[in-house]
Amino acid sequence: MPRENRATWKPNHFLKIVQLLDDYPKCFVVGADYVGSRQMQQILMSLRGKAVVLMGKNAMMRKALRGHLENSPALEKLLPCFWGNVGFAFTKEDLTEITDMLLASKVPAATHAGAITPCEVTVPAQNTGPGPEKTSFSHTLGITTKIFRGTIEVLSDVQPIKTGDKVGASEAKLLTMLNISPFSFGLVIQQVFDNGSIYSPECVGDIASVCLQIGYPTVASVPHSILIGYKGVLALSVETDDTFPLAEKVKAFLADPSAFVAAPPVPLPPWLLLLLLVQPQLRLKPRKSRRSRMRIWDLVSLTNHQKATNLASFICKTKK
User: Fold this and answer.
1) Which of 23, 51, 232, 257 would be 47's cystine partner, CB 3.0–4.6 Å?
2) Phi/psi at 194 (nearest 5 deg)?
3) What is stated as this protein's family in its record (predicted)?
């Protein structure tokens, strides 16, 4: 199939953006930093049938949104979100389900110099494996080490990189040398657009905390409220004679904890233990190499030749 020229592709892309904004009431603004083509293909395959991912130039995205503001004024809230390597993830499904799928699509990746760290990186105390010639990295980063049996050993846990720091060349080489891949890259949700409302993912946790404190039920706080209420009812049932099916197992455990202890392993019979102690250990003879066998054969040949020479000289002397 021939590729469309730019004069045809650009208007079609505008129409596609507008059509998706009309068809889908919810979408994510996702960041795609350090996401390769193969990983993006796997993400699109996992979201097939549940969400549509659309990437494009930020200027083109903003232009399409501005041209559609007359039909949907709420889209104006999305205009400040388009900076950096971002795109849309449109969906009609539950936002929590799509969020879990995006988190599952992340892959671990090694560090490289110049990257901004999204999390803290800890180097555990361990025997690193490299020889003493690699101690320059540890001295540069201020890591306390010692030489143990010809290898570098880190004495205590250290954090060479913190969240938001820029990875230097020494840190990147050290983590690569230790085979540590602390980062995970994928589509990161930056903003959520839901029926005209826009908010960040961190805002959901803040709303749930406030609603739990003031006792106001919302979609974000109801699961936690139900769990807290269940714990209260369970505690009341344990202290009183009132009961319900879910409290029966808890009451049985408190009445007889030994009934829930795992069964001990079956002991071996005495005759089997005695047999294991008396049984001799097998001794494996080392296999001789081909070179060793060749040397032995040469010695045998040389010895036979010397014996034949001595016998011939003895026969000659006897005849004389």
Assistant:
1) 51
2) -135, 100
3) Belongs to the universal ribosomal protein uL10 family.
pLDDT digits (tens, 9 = 90+) for 228-245: 888 888 888 888 877 888
Token match 């990257």: residue? 115
- The CATH number given to 121-180 is 3.90.105.20
pLDDT in tens, 89-140: 898 888 888 888 888 888 887 777 777 777 777 777 777 776 666 667 666 6
Amino acid at 236: L
Question: Please, which residues bridge with residue 28 across strands?
Answer: 89, 192
Residue 39 and residue 34: Cα distance in Å, rounded?
10
Coil, strand or helix at 161: strand
Name the CATH superfamily for 6-109+185-194.
Ribosomal protein L10, N-terminal RNA-binding domain (3.30.70.1730)
Structure confidence by residue, pLDDT tens digits, 48-99? 888 888 888 888 888 888 888 888 888 888 888 888 888 888 988 888 888 8
Please, are residues 105 and 36 in contact by the beta-carbon 8 Å criterion?
no
Hey, where are the domains in the chain?
6-109+185-194, 121-180, 201-256
Residues 198 and 192 sit within 8 Å (Cβ to Cβ): yes
Distance between start and end Cα atoms, the chain: 104
Residue 168: phi and psi, rounded to 5, are -90, 175
C-alpha span between 314 and 320 (Å, rounded): 10
More confident residue, 273 or 160: 160
Residues 6 or more apart whose CB falls under 8 angstroms from that of 51 comprise 89, 90, 91, 93, 98, 101
In angstroms, the Cα distances linking 278 to 42, 266, 268, 270, 274 are: 59, 22, 15, 12, 6
